[in-house]
Amino acid sequence: MFGGIVAVIVAAVAPKLTEQSLQRIRDDGVVAFLVGLGISIVGAIVIVLLAITGFGLILAIPGVIALAVLGIVGSAIGTLLVGRFVLDVVSSSAGEPDTVVVAFAGALVLAVVSLVPILGSLVNFVVSTTGFGAVLFVLWERHG
């Protein structure tokens, strides 16, 4: 349920980022996943290479923190995506469900899926990586 709490916090603190990231996944989820995967791999390699050098360590530490924060935000976006999908499937009511309900529905589904060996880890990885990639896309469009 920690994922649900983080998702609610992210949606409350950055509602525009949340909506834009969710829309990015709906528009092109495969690309968002591939961007998230690529940046995760390249980012880890760059941070290790920076950490090897003495001067680069000054840059590596903020890099690790930035990747960790963006990873947590991306995971929260993924949780909200799963929650919206599940509620869209099971709900026939018109209108947007409450963010808290969406977040906890997504967290509950991901927690249940996590109980299945291998599949649970794979689903959580794909959901988090896709959210991470979507957040990077949105931030790049804003500031890039």
Automatic annotation (TrEMBL):
Family annotation (InterPro entries): DUF8173 (IPR058486)
The UniProt record lists the keyword Ion transport: no
- Residues covered by the DUF8173 domain: 4-141
Keywords from UniProt, A to Z, are: Membrane, Transmembrane, Transmembrane helix
* UniProt cross-references to Pfam families, sorted A to Z: DUF8173
Q: Does the keyword Membrane apply?
A: yes
Q: Membrane-spanning regions, if any?
A: 30-58, 64-87, 99-116, 122-140
What name does the UniProt record give this protein? Answer: DUF8173 domain-containing protein
